[in-house]
Amino acid sequence: MTAKGKLMATVGLKRLGKAAAALVILVSLACVPAAIAQDGYHPAETPAEMALKHVLDLNAHDGNVTRNLFRPGTLGIENVDYRSVLTKALLADMSRQYDAIVLQKCGTRAHADGYCAWLVDPISCSQDGTDYLFRTESQTATAAVVSYRWKPDPQVSDQGVMGEYHMTRSGNSWMVDGIRCRTANIVFNIK
Questions:
Q1: In terms of pLDDT, which residue wins out, 91 or 2?
Q2: Model pLDDT, residue 156
Q3: What span, in angstroms and rounded, lies between the C-alpha atoms of 12 and 14?
Q4: CB within 10 Å: which end of the chain, N or C, has fewer?
Q5: In sequence order, which residues have a C-beta less than 8 Å from that of residue 68 and are 6 or more positions away?
Q6: DSSP letters spanning 108-157
């Protein structure tokens, strides 16, 4: 806006009076998304945040997460190939931890179907949902740490951060390289 335009807007506001000016300010504040005002969380914006949203969206529509993570390509089920969005190191650590906890809690060495081992989804750190808000905690050219939480919902009491994701840039795309599920105290491939 030019200096003349700013001056005319100021004069216009003075003519409207204090009540009208207050109304204009309130209306403009109401247009700011509530998500931005809450600890810097917002809809996915950066390439790393959008990549994480893509992974969480894939995961939300995967009814066979355990099989697709640990036995990709199993016939007869809907397949989601996580190998293109999760690094080999992350998948290996998830598999190692899952084998150990299945043996301890489920009494078998084989990958159990379902959630015998964990009470939450090991990728989303939750049980369901798709309304995410993101915040990039740190980022370099090749690495980023992104956390997510649910959009505010008055019906839900726990609205804290669900997970923290260590992202790595591979070529032109971002992949998840580490997961910290804050709600379930589960950590994969983060030292």
A1: 91
A2: 62
A3: 5
A4: C
A5: 62, 74, 77, 79, 80, 81, 82
A6: -SSPPSSSSS-SS-TTTSSSS---EEEEEEEE-SSEEEEEEEEPP-TT-S
The whole-number pLDDT of residue 138 equals 97
Q: Which residues contact 189 (CB under 8 A, 6 or more apart)?
A: 87, 89, 90, 92, 93, 94, 166, 177, 178, 179
Plot region of 182 (φ>0 → left; ψ -120 to 50 → alpha; else → beta): alpha
Q: No. of H helices and E strands in the chain?
A: 6, 5
- The conformation of residue 86, written as its DSSP 8-state character, comes to B
Which 3 state secondary structure label does DSSP give 72? Answer: coil
* Cα separation, 27 vs 22, whole angstroms: 9
| Structure-block tokens of residue 41 | 């969380």
Specify whether the CB–CB gap between 34 and 124 falls below 8 A: no
Q: Regarding predicted confidence, which is higher, 127 or 163?
A: 163
b vs e for 3-14, b when ≥16 Cβ sit within 10 Å of the residue's Cβ?
Answer: eeeeeeeeeeee
